[in-house]
Queue: 4 jobs
Job 1
Amino acid sequence: MSPTPPSRRRPRGPVALAALLAGAAAASLAVAPAEAAAPGAARVPMHQCWVNGVAAPPGDMVSGSSGDDNIFCDSDLENVTVWGGGGNDMIEVRGLVIDSAVMGGDGDDVIRAKHLVPQNASSMVRGNRGNDVIKVATVVGEGAEHGAVVHGDDGDDKITTGSVSGAPGKFNRGGGIVTGNDGADTIKVGVVDFSGRVLGGSEADTIEAAGLGPESGGLIQAGPGDDTISGPGGTILTVGPHWGMVDAGVGRDTCTVKSVSTRTSIAACEVLPKAAPSAAKPQTPSGAQPAGAKPATPAAAQPAPHPVQPAG
């Protein structure tokens, strides 16, 4: 058998390894996505969302219909808007809400979302019209351009969140904020701190917070209406020891709150917790006998003294 021609011999050793690496690199470039070859091309937002059991196409919009929808996202949302549309919708986002918006649209919607994470823009959850139920893990923003905001909007909404924090930017915009807007809302939040804000809006609202200003500062502002402000389940809300402010607004408001610092402020609360009863020993009314004392013998019951016999 004739020897293998030099042109067809397989290289061995270091030469073979170099050839193998070069071939792998060429193959990876051949199958690279189009944006790798064009760094300036716009990136299409990716997500894993389903609308009524049907996978939503990739893009910056996930939309429901005019009826009752079930929208489920099993991934982070980044630069994506989820819109429930009309009807009573169920929307659940199991990933992070990064520079994105989740909105219920018209109807009595239920929205559940994890953490709001504004990186390059704002992150938002809105109920829009209707009596909505909204649950969000944490609401942490910073400045007007990086706000984390939960809006109940129109209707009697029930909003539950974890901690609320983040200073607003110019004109008091952005930051970390939870607001009921219009309607008689029930708002239950975790600790409000680091300039986080909870706003009730109009009508009679109920606001419960786990704490207010324990490290830096925060604000609870109920607005117009006969509002109720307290800790979880009607317990006493501690304001401080750092900066914190409760402003109940216009109306006859009930505030179950206490201040533990001169740097805190409690305003417009018509009904405050009653002072604890005094532990001093009760005084015995005049003429009354102390408990356990023997009753005095009446004068009429005293034996008459023996008459004095005359001398002699």
Job 2
Amino acid sequence: MAAYLPNQDYRLDDRSRSPASSARPTARSANRPLRPIQRPSSTSPERRQRSRSDARPRQRQERPSYWQYSCGLCQEDHALSACERFRRQTPFQRYETVERRGYCRNCLARSHLAPDCPSLTGCRRCNYRHHTLLHGASQLEEVSLNIEAVTTPAFAWDLVFVPTAMVRITAEGMEGFSMLRAIVSQSATMSKISYAAFRRLGLQSRSYKGERFTTFTVSPRRTNSDWSLKVNALIIEDLPRRIYSDPILEDPTRCFTNYALADPDPRGNSPIDVELGADTYSAIRKEGCTAAGIGDVLAYNTQLGYVFAGPIKNMPRNG
């Protein structure tokens, strides 16, 4: 006789359910094994599918708000890499979009820029530090110039002094001031500050025509000076940089006191974090310049102190 299993409803075969056989089972029906009735399982595929479909709307409603983000190009709720409008652009146009909208060139995130990108991966085509969708952009490629190599140039070019100054930087919300090295560039159309210095000083930024700007006040390194200038600067990644590839042995400051210098060590190669452009040059420049005593270097008088500019040596070779 078959063993009884719990939670199962056993019934005799339908052919042995006549009144006579139910009262007195025959030998054939007595030897017939009992057959359990199959009940619908609570985990059937239909029920599981129905439970998933019922739970989906509830899951969308409970999705946290930080999952929602908008594309900087079309303002839809998707990442820039998933934007169809972005993907239809050429690599050149994609690079311009990334730069104007403030995206990281490496991972296409908006929370940071390329120098601070935590991602360890790069382009899947060339392994360089840019996103695969930007591969082929001419801005990322090194242009090879077909220039004939000259073993003995006709001129002896040595180093050229670039006007630099140590300046005090203050801004709203800052405690005290920070000292940064700046370059005075009359040819630059606007002033600039490095992204690293912007983050380090905790400055506030604003966006205009796809670019990020910040505002700070520049003062001379001399603490007894009351001159200051408010500067609107573009935040860029090309700074900081070093301006001299080789050490300079000539000293242009030998005829000046340390107090009169805008940069106490103009021959130094410490990084440049600020570029004061033509938008500030007329306010910084003062009347008067004098020869520094080496080459064609001149000392220009500015509100920040004397700055030095000009070639140390630039003469034809003999023979």
Job 3
Amino acid sequence: MDEHQHHQEGTGSSDPHTGRWKSFLRDCDTLVSFADPMQVSGRVTRVAGLVMECVGLRLAVGAAATIPTASGFIEAEVVGFEGERLFLMPQSDTEGVVPGSRVFPVESVLPPPGTVPHGRRRPQDRARHLPVGMQLLGRVVDGAGRPLDGLGPLNTTEVGPLNARPVNPLDRAPIKDTLDVGVRAINAMLTVGRGQRLGLFAGTGVGKSVLLGMIARYTEADVIVVGLIGERGREVKEFIDQILGPEGRARSAVVAAPADSPPLLRLQGAAYATAIAEHFRDQGKNVMLIMDSLTRYAMAQREIALAIGEPPATKGYPPSVFAKLPVLVERAGNGLEGGGSITAFYTVLSEGDDQQDPIADAARGILDGHIVLNRHLAEAGHYPAIDIEQSISRAMHSITTHEHQLAARKLKQLYSRYQRSRDLINVGAYAAGSDPVLDQAIAKNGVIEEFLCQEIHDNATLPQSLGQLSSLFN
């Protein structure tokens, strides 16, 4: 039987008719390789406020799409659906969109096979990928990875997912090393650990941007990643040119999504800044992530959630806002044992200096400490205006010596006792000798105030800060 089949195949291969068919099929195969695949598209049925509705496509939440217009393309992202209707949030203005405009899905740009240690099976792995790598240092990009500084293209082939897989909390290295941030009040009283996540709580105009600039310039970190989310455009340029400065900018990657950016771009900017920091952490580097501000990120999510019909819950914030905050914050921190770290500072805008603002309250619960800036101190010329009574570093007790903790606690007690009795002292109602602790607080008040204040161009290292703290009580 096998010999008969072999004989038939041999005679068939010499048949001219069969040869012509094989040649024809080879030509068809070549032509098919040049043909473009059929492009599926949907159409826009409604544009209302911030949201566009589309029918005719089956896309997952988080998928990207483009809408051609007379002046170019509008990029959008699927943020929800209802039945067969998709809700799209554009990354730019919707001017030029007409009824029935076509909507084309965008295939996510995946990294080459073998460049990631796992298969691309999960949604995080199939999410949008944006440029990362050393070429971003010294550059300013927007939330979509496009350069804003006029210095040309980024010239990087490395890309990273916007939403990376979360790190198993049991695999994270513990916080055990101190981090010198160059600010005396923080080094001595609110010592920061490498891999810690802190919130900077402040109202408007009390000096949080200046304090962030000091931290960025003086911190011992391999790489600094700055996310300016929802800030005024003037503040973005001022922070980069004046507060960050040339030396800080040289080792920094800046992601700017100012207040006039669409809410989706502001959300994406925060995720992108975190993705850049994660990329450097995975390379074993110690990264400083500064995000200004977490409140604007929450407001962007509130705009999107309300636009697609999610009901408001707490002071106008939908539940998804409070679900997204820990997802973003938990991406920072230490990596695997022996690897890199991300030490993060998130600014939280306390509206009307209200520390019970829902975003401030939620952030306080998910961060490893909070530094509160006080408006009364700023008005009195006390800079940085850190209120050491309300501020706390939750990692300080595990990374500092017992003597350091005792000295910090002693200073805090004297400072707090003086502040509570300030009115009595000012009007002369306090009689010296009636309270020994208050007598010591009055005697030390001048040197304590001087210790907690610091000029913007003064770098107070951690050893210097501890030495000055010890000398206060010797």
Job 4
Amino acid sequence: MTETSKTEPVQADPRTPEQIRRSRNKVLGLSLAAFVVLVFLISIAKMG
């Protein structure tokens, strides 16, 4: 390992803040939808 590779700064995330926000919102939306489906399925199972 050379001296220059030890001191090179870690490259930041190349995505813009808007892209990061949009990605996070998609994950949160999918998580919420999965939770709603899970609650629905459990409710149906308890009634049946």
